[in-house]
Amino acid sequence: MARRKREEEWENHERWLVSYADFITLLFSFFVVMYAISSVNEGKYRVLSSTLVAAFSGQPWSPVPIRAGQAPTGAPMPLKLPPLPKVVDIAPVPQVPHGKVAANVQPPLARDAAMDRVEKEIKSLLRPLIQQGSVAVHRTGLGVVLDINAKILFPSGQADLTPPAVTTLTSVAQVLRRLPYQIQVNGFTNDLPIHSPQFQSNWALSAIRAVSVVELFIQQGVNPDNLVAAGYGKYHPIAPNDTPEGLAMNRRVSIVIVAPQFPKKAGDSPIMAGAIGDRG
């Protein structure tokens, strides 16, 4: 039997077009997807933008067209703040030590009123001696100054108080012991030199006389913490030493009632308040 001759298979040379078409289709789909991803949804963008602006600035945002040479209407405006108050230096309030009276921090008006009362009370108490010219009471920037002529307090060249002096100073002590202020007793002499077994100089005499007055005040109940004694000898006279009257005036004891927080001025010294002769 004769063998059938095998027919040759037909080869399609155009089948690559199918694969190429599939590739083009996939490539087109890819670019469509990429375009969809890259495109912005304007509506969603506006919502997101408004939300962010409102969250950070408190004002909604909307696109505003800007013309050339014109500032945007949404530009931030300068804020007008009220002027800051002026800084005022406040002096620190002095601390009152434990046990001290609060009068040491009196305001000026209260301090002056207190000093006026003290001055009037002492003047009323010593009026006869003031009229005789043996005592002078006056105000200074430091407080109240009581000048007492030494002739009614001590014998010449001595530092022991006479009986009339004890009586006078005892009455003064009744006023001083009620006061919370510092009290300074300053002794002065004239320029006549002194040489005695007890006192070698006017410095010593004036200092011991001041101490004698302070000791009497302490005996009469004046607070020792408030008392100061100082001697100035022949220095800081209040009258010329070339006349008997001037010599007598310079022999004195000054009792200074220091006002709390007295104003500092050139030449003011609490110790020398009675020595300078600053009569107000």
- Spatial order of strands in the largest sheet: 1-2-5-3-4
- State which percent range the strand residues make up: 5-15%
- What gap, in angstroms, lies between the N and C termini? 166 Å
Tell me the number of strands.
Answer: 5
Structural class: alpha+beta
Give the overall shape: rod-shaped
Tally of domains: 2
Transmembrane segments: 20-37
Main location: membrane
Membrane topology: Single-pass membrane protein
Pfam families: MotB_plug, OmpA
Features:
rod-shaped; disordered C terminus; 8 helices; 2 domains; 60s Ribosomal Protein L30, Chain: A; five-stranded mixed β-sheet; 280 residues; alpha+beta; single chain
Describe the structure.
With 280 residues, this protein is an alpha+beta fold. It has two domains: 41 residues; 174 residues, 60s Ribosomal Protein L30, Chain: A (2-Layer Sandwich), CATH 3.30.1330. It is 38% helix and 11% strand. It is built from eight helices and five strands; from the N terminus they run H-H-H-H-E-E-H-E-H-E-H-E-H. Strands 1-2-5-3-4 form a five-stranded mixed beta sheet. Strand 3, helix 6 and strand 4 form a beta-alpha-beta unit. The radius of gyration is 52 Å and the shape is rod-shaped. The chain starts with 15 loop residues before the first helix and ends with a helix. Pfam families: MotB_plug, OmpA. Keywords: Cell membrane, Cell projection, Cilium, Flagellum, Membrane, Transmembrane, Transmembrane helix. Belongs to the MotB family. One of its GO terms (cellular component) is plasma membrane. It is found in: Cell membrane.
